[in-house]
Design goal:
Blueprint: E1 7-13, E2 18-25, E3 28-34, E4 44-46, E5 49-51, E6 58-62, H1 70-82, E7 87-92, H2 95-107, E8 112-116, H3 123-126, E9 132-135, H4 149-162, E10 166-172, H5 183-196, E11 202-207, H6 211-224, E12 231-232, H7 242-256, E13 262-263, H8 275-290, E14 304-308, H9 320-330, E15 338-343, H10 349-352, E16 358-362, E17 366-371, E18 374-380, H11 384-393
Parallel strand pairs: 6-7, 6-13, 7-8, 8-9, 9-10, 10-11, 12-13, 14-15, 15-16
Antiparallel strand pairs: 1-2, 2-3, 4-5, 16-17, 17-18
């Protein structure tokens, strides 16, 4: 943690034309703030913070408590804000979750973002109590499937205007529009449509569990829409330290190339360790400031590539993180290259495990085991690993 009493110095890093704020205490200098190299992007405000237009890059994190557990969720929001999270995201899937936000808002000073997945209609309920709304274009079809996505986005924009909220168009490569629109096209389409509504207080994210896909898609989007602020992140980065290394090889080259205005490092850690996401974000900013940019061309991914989602309010069973750790330990001796996806809930689990060789997604009392898109079966948590190893042995 940074000491409470410190002196701030602003210095230039000529190689990357970076303005970096250093915190000096006890003779030690540590990079505290990295200014974005994206001066062409719009500046947008989320609660008390602003990003874009060359302003300091804002770090984000997300709660992993049940949203209806008001006290624990509010305490987590405040703890993350105190640790340096400029924005804290909360998952909302039900009306009970949405109603809990009223109380959470009164118990924390954190800038709150709400994560809408399958029910965009909850935006109207949560908007009075949050500073930013994130919607996923790939999930808009779930509610009122007879309506075009444009009418749903128009309603979200109307609500954002009414309640003074910013928006994030959060495209995820694991849950794309069922019309088979690719991630980049989806992001560009939604940005263009929101522009047509005369609303410009939004940012865009294009996330994937594949660092190369994140690099390529964000570079292309920034080239086509240099005015739109970009939220950077690698979805389902996984357990530390591997998840941190994956995030580094995706995010550091982007930041060094002038792309990115806010970021989150999505790690598979329990709620009481969520501040590690902020530590990892600061590490990335420090590396970019110092010119120590991770090179994806020399990065060596592990033989068994494990992707696992960061825990959030949607996790169906508290054993999820233990399951991810058990998967990692069980495959240490496996020499066959493969991807294993470990997902915590029904929202992202079924679809995002389709892209893996082996997939496990958590239900309330059973873990669902898949090989590719085929469901092998649903098993007790104490037998899921053994069943997974049987499937791997039979490949």
């Amino acid at each position: 943690m940074f000491p409470l009493m410190m002196t701030l110095d602003v210095v230039m890093i000529p190689k990357y034309d970076k303005r970096v704020v250093f915190a000096r205490a006890d003779g030690i200098s540590l990079p505290l703030v990295l200014h974005s190299m994206s001066p062409a992007t719009r500046i947008i405000q989320v609660g008390t913070v602003k990003f874009g237009g060359g302003l300091p890059i804002v770090l984000q994190s997300m709660t992993a408590t049940k949203t209806t557990d008001v006290q624990r969720t509010a305490e987590t929001c405040q703890r993350l804000a105190d640790a340096g999270a400029g924005i804290v995201r909360i998952a909302v899937d039900t009306l009970r979750d949405a109603e809990a936000l009223r109380e959470i808002r009164m118990k924390t000073t954190a800038n709150l973002s709400v994560d809408l997945q399958e029910n965009y209609r909850l935006a109207e309920v949560v908007a009075p109590f949050v500073d930013k709304i994130r919607y996923n274009p790939g999930h808009l079809h779930h509610a009122e499937p007879e309506l075009p996505w444009q009418s749903k986005v128009e309603r979200i924009v109307q609500i954002a205007r009414q309640y003074d909220c910013a928006l994030r168009v959060g495209v995820n490569c694991g849950s794309l529009d069922p019309a088979n629109v690719d991630a980049l096209t989806s992001a560009l389409q939604h940005a263009e449509f929101i522009d047509s509504l005369g609303f410009d207080r939004y940012c865009v994210s294009i996330k994937s569990s594949d660092p190369r896909a994140v690099l390529e898609a964000n570079r292309q989007f920034a080239a086509e829409r240099p005015d739109v602020p970009i939220h950077l992140g690698l979805t389902e980065a996984g357990l530390p330290p591997t998840g941190i290394e994956k995030s580094r090889v995706a995010l550091e080259p982007l930041l060094a190339g002038g792309i990115g205005d806010t970021l989150r490092v999505s790690l598979t850690v329990p709620n009481d360790r969520k501040t590690e996401e902020l530590d990892a974000g600061r590490l990335i900013l420090q590396n970019v400031a110092a010119g120590m940019i991770a090179d994806i061309d020399v990065w060596q991914p592990e033989c068994v590539n494990i992707i696992s989602c960061p825990s959030c309010a949607r996790v169906e069973n508290e054993h999820f993180i233990n399951l991810a750790e058990q998967v990692r330990d069980a495959v240490q001796s496996v020499k066959t290259p493969m991807m294993i996806a470990v997902m915590g809930c029904r929202v992202n689990g079924p679809g995002e495990t389709d892209h893996a060789d082996i997939g496990l997604w958590c239900g309330t009392s059973l873990v669902n085991l898949k090989q590719g898109e085929t469901l092998i079966g649903s098993f007790r948590y104490d037998e899921g690993i053994a069943k997974m190893m049987e499937v791997i042995a039979s490949r």
